[in-house]
Amino acid sequence: MDITTEPLGIGNDGNPVYLRDIWPTNKEISDIIAVSLSRDQFLKRYGEVSKGPKQWQAIEIDAGSATYRWNDGSTYVKNPPYFDGITMEPKPVGDVTGGSGVGRPALRPQDSPLQSPQPHNHQAATSQPYEPAPTREKTSRPPADPIC
Question: What is the pTM assigned to this prediction?
Fold first, then answer.
């Protein structure tokens, strides 16, 4: 169901009811907020949101550190390995010329694992349909005994 174009249901009057019929306008939303939320209420609830709840405030931190001290013995929360070596300042970018691959796609469409298998000859792939190699004819010989 596409709620942007199809009716959500049928009203008491027998007519279809669309989302656009019941969705409030920006003015209606603003009017409700104006009568139901004061500045004082907002500041009381969200004024110190960056402090977090009591549980967040209870997390022990090193006074001289700007980051969380991971507990290496924890079996619940681990420091992701991609954080290793990260600093507050990015490393300088080195030489990106000469064989760096700039300007070439890193993965050609034909190399993508999402593509179906294609013949290796590009000309054959564009000029004729791909046909798999013929299978061997069946023989009347029994299969060889497996080596155990």
Answer: 0.31
